[in-house]
Amino acid sequence: MVKFEIHNLNVWFGSVHAIKQVNIEIQSNEILSLIGPSNSGKTTFLHTLNRLNDLDRSYKMSGRVELEREDIRAVDIEELRRKIGMVFALPLPLPLSVFDNVAYGVRMQGERKKKKLEEKVENALRQAYLWEEVKERLSESAFQLSGGQQQRLCIARTLAVGPEVILFDEPCSGLDPISTAKVEDAMVRLKQNYTIVLVTNNVKQAARVGDKTAFFLSGELIEIDKTDKIFTAPKDKRTDDYIRGKFG
Amino acid sequence: MRNPYRTQNIAFFFLFLATLLIVIPVGLIIVIIIQKGLPAINWQFISDIPRQGMRAGGILPAIIGTLYLVTGAIIFALPIGLLAAIYLSEYAKDNLLTRLIKLAIVNLAGVPSVVYGLFGLALFVVFLKFGASILAGLLTLGIMILPIIITTSREALESVPYSFREVSLSLGASRWQTIRHVVLPNALPGILTGTILGLGRAAGETAPILFTVAAFYLPRLPKSIFDQVMALPYHLYVISTQVPNVDEKVRYGTALVLLVLVLFMNLVAIIIRYQFRKKKKW
């Protein structure tokens, strides 16, 4: 099923043309990896999907972004962001306890009942494969957790809100290989129930977890295809150069 | 060849000297006030009305007056200042008008207090017909400390990492929820610092209350906010320059009480701030 349809997307920040004429379809229950050098527009693309770009006053866009055939600009912005969760590049726990971090989004929807909150927090932590490690430490500050645990906490926090799509913005850039493996593991299992868009600077990560891979360069979508295709027989020479590490 | 250790030592020496130069006068002031004022402090001094033309008795009306004025000024200025700061830092568009407003507020913090006194006299005492009263005085003091509170609160709000806001919004929280649950709690220590600064200023200023509330000699406690009242800084001025033959220890005693009062009120804010800082970790 098609989750996202993006038609002729152009994005500007002031006079900088950050995304040029991009067309993509994103299927549900699949991981789409976005690769490309820094400043190629990957993160901007991600922030377009949950309208986080709207915070920037110099932001302008044209084209259409449709979530299940509905223009995302027509949807209530808080509702949209609940549907489209996001995990940031660095683990960014809020300065709250482990429990309160995961419960944050649920509380903001008005849920007050302790039972319900506990249920949702446990559920989300289990989905992020963190429950066993933190079930005794729920009232500790989230900053007491290790970097990898913090990032999975952020995933759990996103899951607790009950999203349909999860955007990962270089989620492993600050993590060691073992933590990275755990986060990747979580992502692969999560795709059964969610649509995942992953921005990564790590080409190998895209090869490991992505069902599809899209290559961005200077704001243009150069190529999008099944991950094996991109990594074995890319159509564009620039894609080939990038995944072989010739530039970027 | 230059010896890097020697240049370092010279630098350290001057840095240390500068610190010492600041500490010595402050320390001296405190020591002198305590030394000369402490003999005057006794139960009667802080619980009795002034007697014999302020040469004997106590200073209770002035203590109460200052407490009322400072508390009232904070109650008036903190909410308004905080709301304005939130608007300016979180909602206002960054355009010429906003920048002008911000500039004006920063500059207002530097306006001499006597100007605020005159303003309070014109607006509250005369135009709004509050008369010389606690109400007029606390409003004048409140307006005087508003720019301090707005400026420090704004800086505190803006120093909360932007990523916290992004995280909160990305979880579907509204902008107001983000401000209320993420930005404000983390800005609170800074906001309280502003409050402490404002509080100290309000307690110590003489000029604004001179025109709007302070009584030269009023040996009774105020009955309502439309009463005049004595206040410590003005009382200190009066007994130091306007009344002959006041014992030195009474003057220094009054100064000591003012100092302790400000310290006590600050302590409350400092304790709250400490509690919040313990939680703040990033």
Description:
The complex is a heterodimer of chains A (248) and B (282). Chain A is α/β, with parallel strands linked by helices and 248 residues long. Chain A contains 10 helices and 10 strands. In chain A, helix 3 (98-108) crosses helix 4 and helix 6 (147-160) runs parallel beside helix 7. The model of chain A has no long low-confidence stretch (mean pLDDT 90). The longest helix of chain B has 34 residues, at 4-37. In chain B, strands 1-2 form a two-stranded antiparallel ribbon. Chain B is an all-alpha fold and 282 residues long. Chain B contains 11 helices and 2 strands, in the order H-H-E-E-H-H-H-H-H-H-H-H-H. Classes of the chains: A alpha/beta (248), B mainly alpha (282). The A-B interface holds A 50, 52, 55, 57, 78-79, 81-82, 85-86, 88, 90, 92, 94-95, 104-105, 108-109, 141, 143, 154, 157-158, 161 and B 93-94, 163-174, 177, 181-182, 185-186, 279-282.
In total, the number of strands of chain A is: 10
What order do the SSEs of chain A take from the amino end to the carboxyl end, as H and E? EEEHEEHEHHHHEHEHEEHH
For the record, give the distance between the C-alpha atoms at the N and C termini of chain A, rounded to a whole number.
33 Å
Using the 3D structure, state the CATH architecture of chain B. Orthogonal Bundle
- The side-by-side strand order for the widest beta sheet of chain A comes to 6-7-8-3-9-10
Mean pLDDT score of chain B, rounded? Answer: 89
Cα Rg of chain B: 23 Å
Helix/strand structural class of chain B: mainly alpha
Portion in strands of chain B: under 5%
C-alpha Rg of chain A (nearest Å)? 18 Å
CATH C-level name of chain A: Alpha Beta
Number of domains of chain B: 1
